User: What shape does this take?
Amino acid sequence: MPSLILTRLRQGKRTLPFPETEPVLPERIRGLPVMDHARCPSGCTSCADACPTDAITSGGNLQIDLGRCLFCPECANACPEGAIRFTSQYQLATSSRNDLVLTEGEALRLAGRLAEQTYRVLGRSLKLRQVSAGGCNGCESDVNVLNTVVFDLGRFGIQFVASPRHADGLLITGAVTQNMRLALEKTYQAVPYPKIVIAVGACAISGGPFRDHPEVLNGADSIVPVDLYVPGCPPHPVTILDGLLRLIGKIKESRATPSS
Amino acid sequence: MAIGLSPFHSGEPVPLRSVPDLSIAEFRTAILSAVSSTCSLAALFGMPAGDRLVRLIAVVADSVTNSLSILSTKVGESYPCLTLECPQAHWFEREIAEQWQVHPDGHPWLKPIRFHAPYRTSNSLSPAPVAGVTDFFAMAGEEVHEVAVGPVHAGIIEPGHFRFQCHGEDVFHLEISLGYQHRGVERALVGGPGKRTIHLMETLCGDTSIGHATAYCEAIEALGSTAVSARAQVLRGVALELERLANHTGDLGALAGDVGYLPTAAYCGRIRGDFLNLTAALCGSRFGRGLIRPGGVGFDVGKPLVAKLQERLEAALKDVEDALALLWDAPSVQARFEHTGTITRETCEALGMVGPAARACGVERDIRQDFPSGIFRFAQIPISKWHSGDVFARAWLRWLEIQRSGAFVREQFASMPDGPILSPAGPLPADHLVVSLVEGWRGEICHVAITDADGHFAHYKIVDPSFHNWMGLAMAMRNQQVSDFPLCNKSFNLSYCGHDL
Assistant: This one.
């Protein structure tokens, strides 16, 4: 017993004061990209050619589809001019798929609160069922982390529950394989109305690195309507938490300007 | 070394024409005699050989002579199975049958493992399989009942289907049916390497991004005669051991949680993140995405960063020791861990289990010792093992490995060689084969790359450690209670996506 108490004291309080205080993230984290086509040599398509998921449109204003982006270093490495670089900005979640298509110079329109009626029902207590449907276990791991003392998801009234019947919505990871299609459909049907769907990670948004494999359906919105898109491969836990808190109105500012 | 085998080393490219092409009888005899002595089956797979034939290729690893042997044979519609005499071949032969519609005659348990349409059609064409719909083993009798779980589970975990044959609370048998995560990774690699290849390696099993990316890079570096600098090899080794530290710590926390011992569960959940964040400090990604690249590593570390990492490593190692001291001192925890989910050494060896699960049965099997590559040729990590084969052994083994991986990373940080981090990767030679082995945190990772006449991948075989070990989990559940399943499952913590590919 004394060792238990001593250890408790030594381990200390580790919960991040988020969202009140900005989190300290790894210096090399690849968050929101910034683009500057003025630096592009004429006719150069190196970044687009290097992109493993064809997320980049070059020629004129640069455009990155964050829903496809793996936030890998390939495009930035391919560009000797620095026309694309990743910032440490972690706020990336959006309410619509189109908002993830980020055009140079434009701000990313971050996710807003749930529609009024749904918010009134779910805003203060949100129970989610997680469905893993053909990914790599990376997103699952970093969603799971939200349950640790570091993020302490429960203090926001959000909880992962064991059954879709107890849930207000689904949090889906993975590209949705042919083999998970039926299970995902049935799980969605089992959730009572009003229900929401959150797609976490490049796979669940666009198929990610498995996009266009005949074995996958290129993401969750091929099967169910999605209310929140959290891009990344996998997204940092803070990015996921930020998205969830926007959905329930606990974080309000709505635009992320790629200027840091 | 058994007759018919010509040994070579891990990471040594072999011209395809020098791979022995045996008759099926010779092929079987060579494998059976090798496996009955000191060898294990690292891989056994089929690839198309034209004219409605399939070429079976076996990679046999001898951990005593530290050499590999490769042999092949051509089969048509069927061949006499190996599984009856060599249970290690069980899952491999199911995979071959599913992919290539080659019937291993006499296979006692021939069912799909991933539920996909076959890669070639034959006369015995069966309808497209539906995931989880198969002929499950069943028990009959009074008070016998069946418990079915999944594919969608109660926690935040990957999908799989489990069928327990029970008598009251006692489990007589557990059958595991996977394939829900099957997303066609191996098939997508054929014709590569291309710009997506390294990303598929990093995401075929996301919690083992470093392990699989390293196995891939070592394979193509061997094929392309690319020399990797000492500095890059050190950084790869550090990343591999950080991956092990993070996952072992997370598993121990989860095991504590599964027996309701919350202090260690809470602390380890956080400390796991501290190790992941060390990897993120190296390359920006908690899972090491972007770090391992053909020819070396994608990120360098300066002296100030190394100093910071050293400090954080020591803090995390101290914290994990502290958190686990509570676990080992709690009699209520030990009472649940000991004698739960026991696997005998004989079962372990017969199934060809790998990694911590095998070492927890007293089997001395570790790629870092038996087939070392990269920095592990110069800096040896002593092998850890325990004898009791139960949940306690699998937990305790992780703690032993945490200490040794910690010491290794500490040592590497203290003596980082100078030099470049990335060398240009050479082109791949035509018609060659290479086997690459890496000890990932779950165990033996085996990649086999085979190039075609143009130097592209004609075939790329991935064997995740989970592929060897899922049957081990099924065996561990025999004569246990249903309520022991979460604990047994977590003590293995196998990969669904790495298996399903």
